[in-house]
């Protein structure tokens, strides 16, 4: 992805974090009875967002009653259970395991909360919950539900809560509404939604509670969510190259497991967001919850529209109580690291009408400013990927195409990649986007033969400020985005991408060889060989690789490209490829990919190609 975006750190039960968490609770005992957290104080405080978040986390602990400590006998009992059922010391007999699990869960009666929040016991409970049957999970969750607020916001307890929700999600997908355990789950989740809903702002702003609430939304809706957000933006590069529809498909009412609870719980979250819109939207832990909420509500058009108005800080007339327009609120979110993530999801789930409003009234007037911003540029990419018509593509391209070089030099080439994708999707403006990109890469008015090399080493060329004396270092790794753009370009009609494939054919054999050996470059070659470009031009490229097929076939990364060359080549080129491979067939057979690779050659093409392979192999044996 373009730029470095800070992500909320994943939770762990490391010793350092546990010491910090214990210190926080110890400090809480000596503070004043009145909570220092209040909406008014946080909103107007001049101590900064970090202070506000710290105060909010302390406020969360004020809701917790003093926990009882787990007695030594119970601790020892759970250590023994862990030694019997834990990793590496598992009891093999299934029936015996189930008896041990049942006995251990029975031991938790009356002290579920204390055990869940005790570090060593919580690990054992996680293991037990993930191995329990439907009735046992439902029963334990029901007993723990009144204490779910404390458990969800505890360093150890939150892991138990998530393990319970994970197990419940798997069980509930059976949709056996007549089973006794289903009714138990219904009662448990009703209590959980009430308990968390009463303190929803404190929970979603808590570093542990945020994860639990997202898991809860996933269970209630029946939608699987990526809860960790491991630095990716909707699938990253793979989603940019995919031409499939937006993954945020509508959720049918029948697919939801607890639609009534999802509606009620969602309104609790939106109620908190309405009071403190900007603060929650830009909070590192509350923002991912709001993103998850929008995704699970993607099929509820009325509720999604209401949620978008609330999160943009506007009513249906477009102004909030403070007199700020939704445009100003959105601008503030787009310039924030966490808020921009939320705006991306807004664009993803918005109806066509709402998207058009955001497109025309809010984003396009300041498009270039957003495109070069470290955070807002990701929103521009989401805006492009979420486009609903070819008219929108043409409108946005007209604004951005004069600034392609500015985007490349500012390390915002991901926006151009997104444009190429939607042009392909709608089969619109393909010639225009290709010619604009070629012009941006050919500032020195040099021969177009340099176009492909400049894309393959895009960052290096951009760092030279487009110098005409720039030469690529073939040993360096090629640009991920540059390779992605070329892959997309070679899927366009030949009359649109002619400048690029002609440039490709003018490359030297050493440059083509280096491209095939690169993880991204080899996919560009495969895209070229799979394109609609006339076969005679593909054969020109393949011919430049003569004498190197054995070298390429011996490496797993480039072996598949050799197969592509064989598929696309003429009979003479096929003979040349096989003759080189015969010389290394014994070594090739010993490699991990070799046997499969040789087999693929045996079945490729029709009978005449099989005869060619056989004849050449025989000739190779006679030479030996």
UniProtKB/TrEMBL annotation:
Q: Which GO terms describe its biological process?
A: endonucleolytic cleavage in 5'-ETS of tricistronic rRNA transcript (SSU-rRNA, 5.8S rRNA, LSU-rRNA); endonucleolytic cleavage in ITS1 to separate SSU-rRNA from 5.8S rRNA and LSU-rRNA from tricistronic rRNA transcript (SSU-rRNA, 5.8S rRNA, LSU-rRNA); endonucleolytic cleavage to generate mature 5'-end of SSU-rRNA from (SSU-rRNA, 5.8S rRNA, LSU-rRNA); regulation of translation; ribosomal small subunit export from nucleus
Q: What Pfam families does this protein map onto?
A: PUF_NOP9
InterPro entries listed in its UniProt record: ARM-like (IPR011989), ARM-type_fold (IPR016024), NOP9 (IPR040000), PUM-HD (IPR033133), Pumilio_RNA-bd_rpt (IPR001313)
Region Disordered: what ranges? 1-67
Q: Which keywords does this chain's UniProt record carry?
A: Nucleus, Repeat, Translation regulation
Q: Could you tell me where the Basic and acidic residues compositional bias lies?
A: 15-30
Q: Which residues form the PUM-HD domain?
A: 484-624
Q: Name one GO molecular function term.
A: RNA binding
Q: Name one GO cellular component term.
A: 90S preribosome
The UniProt entry annotates Pumilio repeats at 325-360
Tell me the protein's name: PUM-HD domain-containing protein
**What is the organism of origin for this protein?**
Adiantum capillus-veneris
Q: What is the lineage of its organism?
A: Eukaryota, Viridiplantae, Streptophyta, Embryophyta, Tracheophyta
